[in-house]
UniProtKB/TrEMBL annotation:
SUPFAM superfamilies: RNI-like (SSF52047). The gene is LOC104789927. Residues 18-58 form the F-box domain. It comes from Camelina sativa (False flax). Pfam families: F-box-like (PF12937). Transmembrane segments: none annotated. This is F-box protein SKIP28. It comes from the Eukaryota. The lineage of its organism: Eukaryota, Viridiplantae, Streptophyta, Embryophyta, Tracheophyta.
Amino acid sequence: MKTEEEEEEEEEWRSAREVLLIVLPYLPSLFELLSMTRVSRSLRDAIRDETALWTNIVVEPPLSSRLTDDILSDITSKSAGKLKTLILRRCLRVTDTGLRRVVDSNPLITKIIVPGCSGLTPEGIMECVVSLSKNNHKVETLHINGVNGFTKQHLSALLTYLSSSEGATIDLEVCPKCDEIRMIPACSRESCNLKQTNERKCRGCWLCIPRCAECSVCLGPDTESQEAACGNDDVLCLECWLVLPKCRFCNKPYCTNHSSRRHEIATTDAAARPSFECEACYYRAGTNPYEVDYQI
Ligand SMILES: [Zn+2]
Ligand SMILES: [Zn+2]
Ligand SMILES: [Zn+2]
Ligand SMILES: [Zn+2]
Ligand SMILES: [Zn+2]
């Protein structure tokens, strides 16, 4: 016989669990989902057994560097064959074998987003896409920018297997300027997107067309651009430059992709706005007032 208290507790847990299972699918990535499993044992079990939570797998930094083929296989097996979306960002340790294992046990996958997964090869990805094209099923979204070695032959072969429905996308194209297989960013400049022009003039890869590192708008000779703190030739349009937080010393901002390079400056004043210094200023001895060598 359960006491009244126990029953009440059980009832409370049941409703908490229901709420959690509604909320959990909206967690942005595996990182948050795994953090939730540490809250309690019963929550961990509930999460593990709820296959609906595992139909979209998103692994991004900081978890990416730890993802191996075996861990990937373990995580995806929780979907019980119902995995639909696989998003792996910069998971360098995942190989063709690992991806193939996931695909073989999850024939319903429609989205494979693996940018920067440089352990994969064009042949490996090709085989997965072909394997998923059985029984009237097709891959709809394929993001493979940063997987090296794609040729025009790979690309045209891939296109024959991908879904032809509207909204289906692959992120690599033949750049009309350099004829290489590259990603061609969209441009938010209004004049570039006027419908009457056949092809927008700024259609080209990152190397052929100078663009804002933040919003990818094209930057022509008559548009104002500003230097970013990122190095590697990142430039910013004036609009993005104005809103991004800037280094306290050289006043250059980092683009969002490189924002982890900020060296935050600790302050004891709770009301002070957070400020940072860029790597260049941080390491440049002498300009950094916190590292000045006062000994003579
Ligand atoms: Zn190009
Ligand atoms: Zn911009
Ligand atoms: Zn443009
Ligand atoms: Zn600086
Ligand atoms: Zn940058």
